[in-house]
Design a protein that fits this description.
It is a single chain. This protein has ten helices and no strands. The protein starts with 28 loop residues before the first helix and ends with a helix. The relative contact order is 0.09. 62% of the residues lie in helices and 0% in strands.
């Protein structure tokens, strides 16, 4: 999917069309309901741009709304229309671009990074760094590291995580992702150090799986 650069981060006053659903002189009840749902979801995202459920639902609604006449009858359609995945990604990009200007928005940045990772890795990682800086619990870091690992980029995940991880205040899952990334990047000493920090601050959790992963990484490097 072709991508474009979003506006500069921090622009909270961007103006966008109130609706992307088709307008007809006499909309039927279903179309009117879809438009009302879109309005409600946009209000939710204006209040909390990191509402993942609202974001995903609105993206699906927007992607179908532009092709309202093609929405399949759920009682007869065996599968979704061809090309819907591309339409959803396009809708996700547009929505992320719309809400990323909010200085509290981190989830839209992660979506932009995901959609641009294959075409522009440097920009994608930069967006992830900004997302992590905007979020204090470690949830953004967890999702960013998970994304990079799934893209087979553990080295980039370690580089991002080591500089951003706060073991005392971030959720344990962020540290888990970082330890696994270090193992996958063939950095067993780093993985062992990270696991020790994770265990120190989250000692009530079971890290047996990570012990096994670290030991496997050590053995692989011998």
């Amino acid at each position: 999917m072709a991508t474009r650069e979003p506006a500069e981060y921090g622009d909270d006053d961007k103006t966008h069309p109130s609706s992307v659903l088709p307008h007809h002189a006499n909309p039927d009840p279903v179309e009117a309901g879809l438009r009302q749902a879109e309005t409600t979801l946009r209000k939710r995202l204006a209040e909390n741009p990191n509402d993942q459920q609202a974001f995903a639902t609105l993206a699906r609604l927007v992607s179908l709304g532009a092709h309202y006449d093609e929405i399949p009858d759920p009682l007869t359609a065996d599968e979704l229309p061809a090309g819907e995945r591309e339409r959803i990604n396009t809708a996700l990009w547009a929505l992320a671009d719309e809400f990323v200007g909010n200085s509290r928005a981190w989830y839209p940045l992660i979506q932009l990074a995901r959609l641009s990772l294959d075409e522009d890795r440097e920009s994608a990682v930069r967006r992830l760094k900004t997302a992590v800086q905007r979020e204090e619990s470690g949830q953004a870091l967890f999702e960013s590291l998970q994304m990079l690992r799934r893209a087979n980029l553990p080295g980039e995940a370690v580089q991002l995580g080591v500089g951003a991880w706060d073991p005392a205040n971030h959720i344990a899952d962020a540290g888990r992702q970082l330890v696994r990334a270090a193992c996958e990047a063939h950095r067993p000493d780093e993985a062992r150090r990270l696991l020790a920090a994770l265990r120190k601050h989250h000692g009530d959790e079971d890290f047996t799986d990570l012990d096994v992963a670290v030991q496997s990484a050590v053995s692989a490097g011998e």
